[in-house]
Every structure is written in C-alpha cells, then in structure tokens.
Amino acid sequence: MNKIDVSRVDLNLLSAFEALYEERSVSKAAERMFVGQPAMSHALGRLRRLFDDNLLERQGQQMHPTRRASELYPVISRILSDIREQVLDQTAFEPESWNGTVRIGLNDYSEMIYAAPVLERITAAAPHVSVSFVTVNRSNAYDWLKSGKLDLAVGHWPSPPADVAITPLYIEKHVCLFDNQVLDYCLPLTLEDYLKTDHALVSPDGQLSGKVDELLAEQGLSRKVILGCTRFVSLLELLKGKPYISVVPEVLSKLDKSDSPLSKCFPPLSIPDFEIGLAWRESDSYHPVLKWLRELVICVVEQERYRISINA
User: Fold this and answer.
1) What is the pLDDT of residues 184-231, one digit of tens each?
2) What are phi and psi of 286, to 5 degrees?
3) Burial code of 175-210, b = ≥16 C-beta within 10 A, e = fewer?
4) At what angle do helices 37-51 and 26-33 cross, to 10 degrees?
C-alpha cells in the first residue's frame, strides 16, 4: 500500500472532505466553508489525488461517496473533532469534571498558612483533582518548575530565570523573635543587645550565615550564630526557653498561638523588606488548567493575608 505524503495534508483540506461528504454537493460544501465553488472543486481534486480515489461521484443531482470515502469519513471526522475540542477550544476546561493532578511548591510556614485553604478551594471547585504540596526553596524551585515537577510555587524569587514568570503577591517584613522571659530585655531591642545575644536561623543548606550577616559586615559588625535548622516551624519551638534571637518573616511571628508566645520587635538595623510572589513556567502561561490554578491560589493568599492581619 502506498503511504500518503502527510506534508500535502492540511486542516483545511480535511475540513473540505468533511463538508463534501456531509453535504454531498460541491456548492453546498463551498457555502458551508465560506469559499467559492471553484475553490471547493480544486479541494476535491486535491483530495482525489491525495487518496487516489474519486471519493465522491455524481449520480443525478447528488454526489455519492465511494467505499473509500465512507471508510475515511469517521476517521477524519474524529480527528477534526479532537482538534476542535481539545486543541482549539480554550473553554473546554471544566474544573468540576477534570481529574488531573496539581503540584504546588510552598516552604514550611507557607504550607501552614495556605495549604489547607488552597486544598479546600480546589476540592470544592474540582472534586476529582489530586493535590501535591511540595517543600521548596530557591535552590530547587526553579529547576522543578522548568522540569514540570511543579506547576506553581509561592516564595521569594529574586532574579528569576527568563523562562520563569512571577506574579507579586505581597511584601513581607522582618522581625526579631525571642523568648523575653529568658532574655529579659527592655524593648525596643538595642543594637548592642542584639549583637551580644546568640542567634538562630533557618538554613536549608546548613550554612550558619545569611543576608543579615552580609548587612552587618557592610557596617563592620558581626553576630554569633549558634543554631541553624531547616524549618521555620521548628524554629518557633527551638527559641522557647532559650537565650536566642532570630530574624524571621513577620508572618511567622503571628503563627505562634501558644500560651506563652515569643516576643517580637523590629530589628535594630535596617533589613530590607522582601517580595513574596507566585512563580510558574512561562511556557505554561496560557494553559487553561494553570490559569485557573493561578487565579485560585492568588485569591486564597489574599484572603488568608487579610484573615491573619485582622486576627493578629
């Protein structure tokens, strides 16, 4: 059997075949396709050469399909239907009937704040969807977004690569967090007290220095970091009953709902605020599932930030 040269096939030609087969008339098919009758006759000629068959033969006032045309019609019709519904129709996505999986990157305290309400909103809109929350930081999030391991990630994204898009969500401040029942400092904290106290920080890679140390070094100052841990949530417990200070995102201090919450105050040195944003792969910007998921996550973050602010 001779193979058909697919380079000679285009959607318009297949659409012409569908119209000719269903209308059984060159003039009616031309009207349906919004082309002139000569153009439709030319398309029929191309189809006959392509398939090496007459396809439609005139019998009286009507054209009748050949056996080959009747074999081709259900195949071509199905191909065109799939293209229209799954490729060209951007409104085809319906959350309530979709049964895929979404993967959202969060750090540990963001997971505490946003995971439950995001899950609730997703399952309410899309009850058949599976959700995976993945722990991320700047050292892994970009690679995981680009590889497709993540669909979205919430975090601080300085200098993202060109193929990662960012939508700003909010600006986060820094505070000092400490157990003042142990340290017994007068507040606000002085720079002298800040520097003489042992420090703790969150360090996913195990390093006992960070941005604060760089800022202090610029002023010829330094601090002593004696504790590092990988999770902000663990840090809350590690600070209690200990003579340590830690500089943390302000929202973390609002998550301490214990009977004896830690004390907080703004640092006695200038530490720049930082932006929290939603990151995703640029090439996925117009994917209907990802557009829906981005809008949902942005809405949840806004609502949770407001809830935290009024309950703090």
Assistant:
1) 999 999 999 999 999 999 987 788 998 899 999 999 999 999 999 988
2) -105, 10
3) bbbbbeeeeebeeebeeebbbebebbbbebeeeebe
4) 110
CA distances from 154 to 106, 117, 235, 297, 309 (A): 5, 14, 20, 9, 19
**Phi/psi at 249 (5° precision):** -60, 140
CA–CA distance, 113 with 260 (Å, rounded to integer): 21
Query: Residue 179: which of 271, 243, 113, 118 has the closest Cα?
Result: 243
Q: CB of 224 within 8 A of CB of 180?
A: no
Q: pTM higher than 0.70 for the full model?
A: no
Within 13 A of 231's CA, how many CA atoms are on the CB side? Answer: 12
Q: Within 13 A of 14's CA, how many CA atoms are on the CB side?
A: 18
Per residue in 272-306, pLDDT (tens digit) is: 999 999 999 988 888 888 999 999 999 999 999 88
